[in-house]
Amino acid sequence: MKQSIKLGLGLAIAATMTVAQANEVRVGMITTLSGDGAHLGVDVRDGFMLAIEQSGNSDVNVIIRDDDQRPDLANSLSSEMVDREDVHVMTGLIWSNLAMAVIPSVTRQGIFYLSPNAGPSDLAGRMCHENYFNVAWQNDALHEAMGQYVRDQGYENPYILAPNYPAGTDALTGFKRYYDGELANETYTQLGQSDYAAEISQIRASGADSVFYFLPGGMGISFMNQYANSGADIPVFGPAFSFDEVIVGALGEAAEGVINTSQWAHDLENDTNEAFVAAFREEHGRTPTLYASQGYDTAKLLLSALEVAHPEDDPDAFREALRAADFASTRGEFRFGSNQHPIQDIYVREIVADGNGGFTNRLIGVAMEDHQDAYVGDCDL
Amino acid sequence: MTFALVVEQILNGLQLGTMLFLMASGLTLVFGVMGLINLAHGSFYMAGAFVTATVTATTGNFWLGLLVGVLAAGVIGIVVELLVIRRLYDRGHLDQVLATFALILIFSEGTYMIYGSSPLFLSVPQELRGSLNLPFGISYSRYRMAIIGMGILVAIGLYLLISRTRLGMQIRAGENDREMIGALGVDIKTLYTLVFALGAALAGLAGSAIGALQSVRVGMGEPVLIMAFVVIVIGGIGSIKGALVGALLVGVVDTLGRIFMPLTLVTFMPPSQAMSIGSAISSMLIYIMMAAILAFRPHGLFGAK
Predict the structure, then answer these.
(1) What is the pLDDT of residues A161-180, one digit of tens each?
(2) Would you say residue A10 has pLDDT above 60?
(3) Among A34, A188, A226, whose Cβ lies nearest the Cβ of B275?
(4) What percent of chain A has pLDDT over 70?
(5) Angle ∠(B9,A170,A90) on CA atoms, nearest 5
(6) What's this model's pTM, rounded to 2 decimal places?
(7) Chain B closest CA to A160's CA: distance in Å?
(8) 8 Å CB contact of B144 and A197
(9) Distance CA B135, CA B132 (A)
(10) A252 touches B: beta carbon within 8 Å
(11) Which of A87, A104, A292, A378 could be joined to A288 by an S-S link, Cβ 3.0–4.6 Å?
């Protein structure tokens, strides 16, 4: 009797397992969870997993790996994901140099890639692919909006600065696309650089009337901290990457009053966003950054397409469902352009005291409406 | 390019150099006296910064934080020496590299477990904020100036310690002949622990001081460690004087290269190209310099033999 119960139980378990495997969707997430850029990857992961947990969809199996911000490691992890883990969908990469090393090869192998962050210009233009979707933005977007803002505010001699990697060149290119006046100087720094003494001396001596910098993660903290302490008083501007909630929290009053551009804000008023911010604070005890919202939207997009089709059983229907982008985004309305990059509003935010002794970003206006990237024409899709 | 700017950039180079000296002096002492390659030296730098940031955040006093940070790094150095390093002196360099690399992972993961992945913030003390006005229209950050001053004091202190004290004599003797100094009745074990703790405390001092300028985070020590190794190879392994000269050389060359390399290239190629090529070359500059120095002086500038 006992034996037969065991056997029956075993069969039952085996039966449920095969059913689960048939519908299982394997998602490979390679992201940056350690080092200088860790908080970007951590927020993408936490936002993504929050949406998966809320959905209660137990078919989605997310395999998470840390790339340590190294292209070589990201590459070998992606081989592992494709060959051994047999994933259907990949996501997670933060840095554009890693994205360029990984994404073209995985999309060629028939795997879907949903980028929650990196949006290098090549992947939006000449190297676009039907299996590659960017849920965040094309790299240039926030910088373009800031270029326009700086020009509209009447600045005539900005000093612009970014790290020397694909997203850094995209950043300065984007800024210059909408700011067409004189530049005091244009400087590329090392990716991961932590001491900016030499650059700050250059800025102070350059006679610039404003500073625009794109320095995500720990780089942004180091730069602004040193800049404020150097006694320089030239106003600074940047994309939200240089002023996310973690960076603003670390900088304190050094960043008060700084204007930055973002495709999302934690105080953006729509039902999805309010619910997301509340749930994220509840779960993690901190205010989400834009990276968390991007991770959340990426998972929402994935879940919406899974309602329609399974990526392996019917890739064409799955792809169509992704293109339709039929999900409630934290950004309000969300749609893709023909190169499968978002067409969206870009907002202006200001760093203000939050009333509890800390500082936070506050939404103050719209910089660009329905903004689309400049590379869509180079894409054959 | 004004005169004031050039002087300011040289000061920036010297400030980087003095910070590297704090790291490299401990590294070179430990290597010179005990023959130990310590990859975990960057962990003491990180430990100093984290303790300083924590103590400063709770007490609001940076100087107290700095003191506790340096002492904590020294104490961690003693514990690590007693538990792990002591067993490595008689082993080959490969074992030392493996064991101390494991220590890096343990320290990083441990710090990550305690503090999480978000960087900590440590602000420059009120009295050192802003900049100092020097003659000829030069203005320079007070805090960075203070780091240079502190580096000079440490260099003088180390010089006096090594050349004028009994402990210094034993250290020099240890560098020359480890077995003989033991045979002469010097308590070699305590000496090793002391030297190791001194190195760790200096690394902690560097980390604490730099923590106020940069973000205090897991893994902050490793990039500095790599440069510190370049410094001791250039200066000659085991030589404090070599560490000082090497550190200042690396600091100034790295800083000036970063600025002047793109500016030189910009005269004969388009700006964006000059910027990217220039910054690529300047990041190689200290390694090129190391190779050139080793070609002429295989033991470094002040190396023994």
Answers:
(1) 999 888 999 999 999 999 99
(2) no
(3) A188
(4) 94
(5) 120
(6) 0.84
(7) 12
(8) yes
(9) 10
(10) yes
(11) A292
Residue matched to tokens 């994205």 = A99
Domains and CATH numbers, chain A: 2-137+268-336 (3.40.50.2300), 141-262+346-378 (3.40.50.2300)
The answer to whether residues A44 and A292 touch, using CB atoms and an 8 Å cutoff, is yes
- pLDDT mean across residues, chain B: 87
> Which site among B7, B117, B263 would you substitute to test the A interface, given the most A Cβ atoms closer than 10 Å to its Cβ?
B117
- Using an 8 Å Cβ cutoff, are A329 and A300 in contact? yes
Alpha-carbon gap, residue A32 to A38, rounded angstroms = 5
Number of neighbouring beta carbons within 10 Å of residue A333? 12
A374 to chain B, minimum CA–CA distance in Å? Answer: 20
**What CA–CA distances, in Å, run from B127 to A138, B123, B132?**
44, 11, 12
DSSP element (H, E) containing A367: strand A359-371
Q: CB neighbours of A282 closer than 8 A, spacing ≥ 6?
A: none
- Sign of the CA dihedral running A47, A50, A54, A55: positive
**Pairing outcome for strands A158-163 and A185-189:** parallel
Domain segments of chain B: what residues? Answer: 12-219
ipTM: 0.79
Q: Which of the two residues, A118 and A194, has the higher pLDDT score? A: A118
- For B193-238, the pLDDT digits (tens) are 988 999 999 999 999 999 888 888 888 888 889 999 999 999 988 8
Dihedral over alpha carbons A340, A342, A343, A348 (to 10 degrees): -160
The radius of gyration computed from the CA coordinates of chain A, to the nearest angstrom, equals 22
Distance CA B99, CA A208 (A): 50
pLDDT digits (tens, 9 = 90+) for B17-54: 999 999 999 998 888 888 888 899 999 999 999 999 99
B19 beta partners: none
Coil, strand or helix at B133: strand
- CA A336 to chain CA centroid, Å, is 16
**pLDDT band, residue A5 (cuts 50/70/90):** low
Q: Which of A142, A131, A129 is nearest to A91 (CA)?
A: A131
